[in-house]
Design goal:
Length: 297
Amino acid sequence: MRVFLTGASGFIGSAVIGELKAAGHEVLGLARNDDNAAKLQAAGVAVHRGDVTEPETLAAGAAACDGTIHCAFIHDFSRFAENIAIDRRAVETMLAAMEGSGKPFILTSGTLMADPDREATEEDGPSTEGAGAGRGATELVVQDYARRGVRAMIVRLPQVHDTRKQGLVTYAIQVAREKGVSAYIGDGSARWAAAHVSDVARLYRLALEKGQAGARYHAVGESGVSMREVADALGRRLKLPVVSVTPEDAPAHFGFLAMFANRDAPTSSRLTQERLGWTPTGPGLIADLDALELTDA
């Protein structure tokens, strides 16, 4: 299968490329600039020039391939609502180009977008409140096109990690270094789901090959790691004191991360594992934080 991959030069996209190529698939990777194009060429990937802010360029890539995996997203949380709208236009344009084709399309969404304070499952529809509402609306677009001749599906990501990057925890590391303390909110009982990047890449491939139209898949290896555990691990690795901050003080301490940092969002992947034959085997989040590769940056 020839697969159009957005976000191809990123942390997750790079792992997906390796997984797809190892399974015999060809990859057409989206590159918005010369640096990204060079990375893809070095990985032996064909390059498609374009940008998520120019959705017609993405439509051309999707139309030229046998399937599409959409991993790209603008991670500027100071303009979160605007970037969600950009993403939705890109998704709508790609899906319109694929309507009636029967080709697979995979949207990347997030487990933190689910309704909080209970273990979310694949049967749960998109959130309609808080931080999850915007990306939830994009999930609804995908579900609509699943009824319009596209094998469209959703992969919800937790905190995807290795020893170099850890999703939103990467921003928590930056805050800890800037503030000189590793912090959690309240009693630190809020939980985030997590998965190793190698397991996530394998799930994308399995969904591409076997996934069903309209399905939601959870790329979750650990259903819930508490923020106290994360803070303790960062304190050990960074040699910083571990402290609690109040919910009232969280915005001043964490910045944009505060809107996620106290969100209790444990997530199950039981149905995903059963339906795709996917078994996570990678290291856990705390193990990767204990082995965190530190830089001077």
